[in-house]
Specification:
Helix content is 57%, strand content 8%. Strands 1-2 form a two-stranded antiparallel sheet. Helix 1 crosses helix 4 and helix 3 packs across helix 4. The protein has one domain. It is mainly alpha-helical and 97 residues long. The protein starts with 5 loop residues before the first helix and ends in an 8-residue tail after the last helix.
Length: 97
């Protein structure tokens, strides 16, 4: 079975309303942010390092997709979402109001 391509994972996440394009970058949607908040709460106090986003991302994807994704698809989406989520969590300069 061929490995899912990152482009296919990005497209699926965008179609499913979890990512949106902003210029050349992908940003997470409120739907995804809500799933991540619930996943983080579920995992609070667990053994995963706090800077490792893979566990909450996997938990959020499993909440949203259940067993509809195969292992390869799940891994591909986690790999695609890790850098996007890390960028979302990074501090940004605020715009003047």
């Amino acid at each position: 079975m061929p490995r899912p391509r990152p482009e296919a994972a990005l497209g699926a996440l965008e179609r499913d309303g979890l990512l949106r394009r902003e210029g050349e970058a992908y940003r997470t949607t409120r739907r995804w942010q809500s799933a991540m908040a619930r996943a983080s709460l579920r995992l609070l106090g667990g053994d995963a390092p706090p800077d490792d986003l893979r566990a909450p991302i996997a938990s959020a994807l499993l909440e949203l997709y259940g067993d509809a994704l195969g292992d390869e698809e799940l891994v591909a989406r986690i790999a695609v979402l890790c850098p996007i989520e890390a960028a979302e969590l990074a501090p940004r300069p605020r715009r003047a109001v």
